[in-house]
């Protein structure tokens, strides 16, 4: 049996967001892992010129392409890519779906303010650009408003498909995520009505689950979810310490 895995990155992001997990699955299991770049996200492209419909279409096209070559397909989505993954899982006979920091809701203001305060403190010391959050804040601040509106439209367009997802789902959420709040993961868990679903909270993680303090736990949990038989749904809190 040929197994494929579609990995969908987030808004203003790139395949780097899921790269450690994608490489792990590719090397360990020899799966056909496809990590397409969404329209407007290549270096030579402009987010001002894209529509949310092109992101949905690209994800749909990628899924169709994988099903041409694979007998079994998994879908993994990060942030906005998690919402696109839910859409794919509702429309295609995927085996399982993984949602990491999925942006059903967004901007956890409390944690975001804490991160900004920490970054500003680094700036006072003359080291702002060395702060790990600096590239993220810089990127978000400079994102065209048109693209932000398209992102909101994308989330609104695919949310109704959540109720149509019937395959096992894994939802992973960073407790300290300043961009996608915990209530987003809880919303997804409640909205999806399939009997087999897992919700994992990672206590030390921020938004980038595959690169944070709990990254090894995240990847191990996702791997086990994909390759093992799954018991009934559960909610789990995990700590790196």
TrEMBL record:
Pfam families attached to this UniProt entry: Abhydrolase_1, Hydrolase_4
Gene3D superfamilies: alpha/beta hydrolase (3.40.50.1820)
Xref: InterPro entries: AB_hydrolase, AB_hydrolase_1, AB_hydrolase_fold, Esterase_lipase, Hydrolase_4
Active-site residues from the entry: 79 (nucleophile), 177 (charge relay system), 207 (charge relay system)
Signal peptide as annotated in the record: none
Domain Serine aminopeptidase S33: 142-209
Domain AB hydrolase-1, residue spans: 6-114
Binding site for substrate: 11, 80
A single GO molecular function term of this UniProt record: carboxylic ester hydrolase activity
Entry protein name: Esterase/lipase
Native source species: Alteribacillus persepolensis
